[in-house]
Amino acid sequence: MLKKLNNWWRWYRHPLPTELREFHQSVVIDGIEYDLMPAQLAHAEAMLAVERDAYFGQEPWPIELFWNEINRQHERLYLIVQIKATHTTVAYIGTAFRPSLREVHITNLAVNRQWQKRGLGKFMLSYIMSVAAQIQFETVSLEVRMTNQAAQKLYSRLGFRKVRTKHHYYDDGEDAVEMRSTLGKGRL
Ligand SMILES: CC(C)(COP(=O)(O)OP(=O)(O)OC[C@H]1O[C@@H](n2cnc3c(N)ncnc32)[C@H](O)[C@@H]1OP(=O)(O)O)[C@@H](O)C(=O)NCCC(=O)NCCS
């Protein structure tokens, strides 16, 4: 009993095994070769640049927030995508692991505008969903702006469903749609 509790506590505090946190994967999407890897502190500037570009310079997270998120190694996983040939960072996804709910929450997802509509958003989100399923998490959740049709379409394609509206969720007063995918019942 004590051993079981001990194992559970270890999992609860560190739900992501090292092999899912320390990796470097090459992938070809639509004929272009990319590298997928966990973000390190040194990548924060490049992630901020992706964020600025993707959101047209609006409300980028401050660099300190990126540092803080990347440093929270036991509860967060930030992945970046680089173009293999140039090592340029063109996309990233941020996730928060909530073991008490067996839920992974997507904190952000951004693709440099020049690199959008090439399958990178879908690839990163699918990857996180498969990691979540591997570690026995049950749901993936996120919030998205009511007007962000592109992102909502992507999420719907991956099996996310609208759960509720969060009124005036964003600083400018826009509502958010909360979306959720139940792993195993989605498209994985
Ligand atoms: C949303 C975002 C991450 C999508 O990334 P992406 O790499 O361009 O998306 P993908 O190429 O993987 O597209 C996957 C699917 O999403 C949908 N989609 C993506 N961009 C779209 C657009 N501009 N208009 C309509 N549908 C779109 C499509 O259904 C697409 O599948 P299809 O090409 O087979 O039809 C990207 O547009 C982005 O960074 N936007 C700005 C930041 C943002 O809004 N982040 C989400 C915060 S919640």
UniProtKB/TrEMBL annotation:
One GO cellular component term, please give it: NatA complex
Which PROSITE patterns does this chain map to? GNAT
Q: Name one Pfam family in it.
A: Acetyltransf_1
**Molecular functions (GO terms):** protein-N-terminal amino-acid acetyltransferase activity
Query: What domain of life?
Result: Bacteria
Membrane-crossing residues? none
Residue ranges annotated for the N-acetyltransferase domain, each copy included = 34-184
Iron: is it a keyword of this entry? no
Q: List UniProt keywords, sorted A-Z.
A: Acyltransferase, Ribonucleoprotein, Ribosomal protein, Transferase
Which SUPFAM superfamilies does the UniProt record give? Acyl-CoA N-acyltransferases (Nat)
Q: What NCBIfam families does this protein's entry cite?
A: rimI
Q: Write down what this protein is called.
A: Ribosomal protein S18-alanine N-acetyltransferase
Native species? Weissella diestrammenae
